[in-house]
Amino acid sequence: MGQTFITITEAARLTGQSDAAIMRVIKDCLQQPGVNPEEILRKEPRGNGFLYVVNKEVLLRELGGTKEEQQPAQETKEAPELKQTPSTGRSDSEESSDSKSSGQASSGQALLEAKNEMIAMLQKVVDTQGGQIEDLSGKVDQLIERDRETNILLKTLQDKLFLLSGKGENKKHA
Q: Sheet holding 41-46: strands in order across?
């Protein structure tokens, strides 16, 4: 019996589990006593590096089946409902595929609408922030102008003090 090894990503796609869940299953398998690690996990050279691959049969045994194996059980529950619908001259599988594609289209449309709503909300936030930045920029410009005015007034005051101190020294010397 030949052993089939698949990548972690392929295993996740096959089983419907996350990569992390696949890695946990592999770790649990490797920690079992009397297990040859080479029969479960291998490191294969691919491209410039290495890629870990897992034994497909061991993984499916540990997880209890694939996503495809689990779906027919769910479809058999839905099958009586399909047979109860009025016939349109098409087979049940054609009606089923049409209902799935229309369900996908409606979920895709709902996703698109949600994205558009999010974009509109974010655009409002950006516009609000743009207005706030403009207001703050105007206030900074006003503060800079007040600072210039203050510097002019201080310079004038220093000049007058210098003139007064100079005249006072002239009267004392005379």
A: 5-7, 49-55, 41-46
